[in-house]
Amino acid sequence: MVKRFAGWLMSTPATLLVLLLLLVPVAATIAATFGDARGPFAPYADFFGSAFRRAVLWRTIEIATITTLIALFVGFLTAFVVSRAPGRLKSILIIAAVFPLLTGVVVRSFAWLIILGKNGILNNFLLWLGVTDKPFAMLYTEGSVIVAMVYLFVPLMILTLVGVLEGIPDDLLQAASSLGATPAATFRQVVFPLAVPGLIVGAVLVFTGSFTSYATPQLLGGERQMVMGTLLYQRAMVAFDWQGASAVAAIMVVVTVSVVLGMTRIARRLNPMSS
Amino acid sequence: MKQPLHPALIAFAVVVFFFLVAPLVIILGAAVSDTTFLTFPPKGFSTRWFVKIFEMAAFRRTIVTSLEIAFLATGLALLFGLPAAYALNRYRVQLPSWLSTVFVLPILVPEIVLGFSLLKSVAVGVDMPVFATLVAGHTLIVLPYAVRVISASLSSFDFSMEEAAISLGSPPIKTFFTIVLPNVRSAVIAAFILAFITSINDVSVSLFLTGPGVSTLPIQILAHVEQFFDPVIASVSVLLMVLTVGVMAVVELTLGLTFLAK
Questions:
Q1: Could you tell me if residue B5 is inside a domain?
Q2: pLDDT averaged over chain A?
Q3: What CATH number corresponds to the domain at position B82?
């Protein structure tokens, strides 16, 4: 009798934890946006009625999309080199990718403050080169946020893709080249299609990660480059507009969940192994 | 024989790895600079900014709080997650398939939304003390590591070994600790480490849950950067990196780091 419920008995505490600390609070946040005294969609009307907040949503999507595309390109080529590197070198390269990943977001974003600041390394270097005679204002631009985000997410992309690329047998590449394919053609027609499921997983991780980030846009974008994460914080903790903050939170959940579900569907359809 | 890589591709990878490592070297340089402002390459050499961290009460306090929260949250996540991971594999037939999806949710839902929702429903809603709410929030976000990493390892465990021990008269609880647990030891260590690092570095959840007198190190760093731009932050960052190196050394010694790429 006990045996029949043993599985439930052991999994229930963890399930309850997720239920009470995640499902109920998040559902309450989303439900609150429909319970406004001025009507069920008032917080959304506020959000989309404000040119500033629409711009924030658009900027966040733009930053996340550009970051994802750059991370895909950089991560894929680098992961390919890593996956073909000889054993010992490969371990060193993987360590070099894991280390930044385990270093916190705040630390890694802070590094870019030192690099991109008015008296930062890059400006000093450009002055020294004589490219310019007065420092560029690089911080608090969309570009600085994107650079730091790419830095943040490239290691994740590399590690996701190395695993996938290592699964492609060397014989397959040799077969392609012995059948007359140039290295570029092999890369395009054999390696790339086989890596598509991994690329989609990586893209989902990077897009959702950068779409919902807080610390990086806060440090490198400030008030001038407000994104959904910093807007949520500003609404909740500075303006004490919890209804407005809840609407931002609900929109973030909807975007994230639709990207995850949509991309998973595409991944299933594109997977060359499944058909 | 492996196909040789195109030199341009290798050069590209070299540049990428330079891009990955250089910012961390810059922090290291800025931390030992003998100046009152952040600069690289360092001017002079001084360790005074490391001493300064421990002279500042706010940093001393938040370092201790962050470590306490990380240990408690990781411990709790293992306590909740280990039985769940075991049940998901051992009683796979008897449990519904959606159950394992439940433990992906803390990763799927944006952390900053979680932080805000916990503030509304738990910190304010049930008036939980600040420290307890922080521990609860961190336990939630590190739970997926405990469940998924251990579950992945248990999925290749042969449960007939456990049944053999039990049929030979070993009590079930004792069997779990002497037969099952030793076989997934490395997964438990990996889960512990990933969870611990995630908790120590967390910003988005802690952001909403810190309260008067109780804050975590990353939140304190963010607050400090907004007012001062001195090498203290660089030296705190180095401290965090040293912690990461220590953790990586443990992983390397127990599992091999390539484990993390799988």
A1: no
A2: 91
A3: 1.10.3720.10
Mutation target for A interface from B112, B196, B200, B259: give the one with most A CBs within 10 A.
B112
Does the beta carbon of A102 lie under 8 angstroms from any beta carbon of chain B?
A: yes
In the predicted model, what is the mean pLDDT of residues B185-206?
92
Which of B10, B113, B119 shows the shortest C-beta gap to A253?
B113
State the Cα–Cα distance between residues A161 and A80, nearest whole angstrom: 8
**Hunting for tokens 């000889």 — which residue is that?**
A86
Distance from CA of B171 to the nearest CA of A (A): 14
Tally the domains of chain B: 1
Q: Is residue B159 assigned to a domain?
A: yes
Residue with tokens 């490395």: B186
Cβ A54 vs Cβ B117: under 8 Å: no
- Chain A nearest-CA distance from B43, in A, is 13
How many angstroms separate the CA of residue B112 from the nearest CA in chain A? 7
Over residues B250-259, the pLDDT tens digits come to: 777 776 655 5
Q: For residue B176, is it within any domain?
A: yes
Cβ pairs A/B, distance under 8 A: 260
B126 touches chain A (CB under 8 A): no
pLDDT of residue B262: 45
CB contact under 8 A, A96 and B207: no
CA distance B247 to B249: 5
Q: Which amino acid is at B126?
A: V
Q: Six-digit token pair at B114?
A: 């979680």
A250 by DSSP, 3-state: which?
A: helix
Task: Please report the DSSP string for A35-61 in residue order.
Answer: --TT-TTHHHHHHHH-HHHHHHHHHHH
The residue segments making up the domain with residue B199 are 56-261
CA distance A266 to A201: 11
The interface predicted TM-score of the complex, written ipTM, equals 0.92
Domains and CATH numbers, chain A: 52-270 (1.10.3720.10)
pLDDT tens digits, residue range A205-257? 999 999 999 999 999 998 899 999 999 999 999 999 999 999 999 999 999 99
**Amino acid at position B41, single letter:** P
Which pLDDT does position A168 carry in this prediction? 87
Residue type, position A118, single letter: K
Q: Do A146 and A216 touch, CB atoms closer than 8 A?
A: no
Surface of A (180-219) touching B: CB under 8 A: 183, 186, 208, 211-215, 218-219
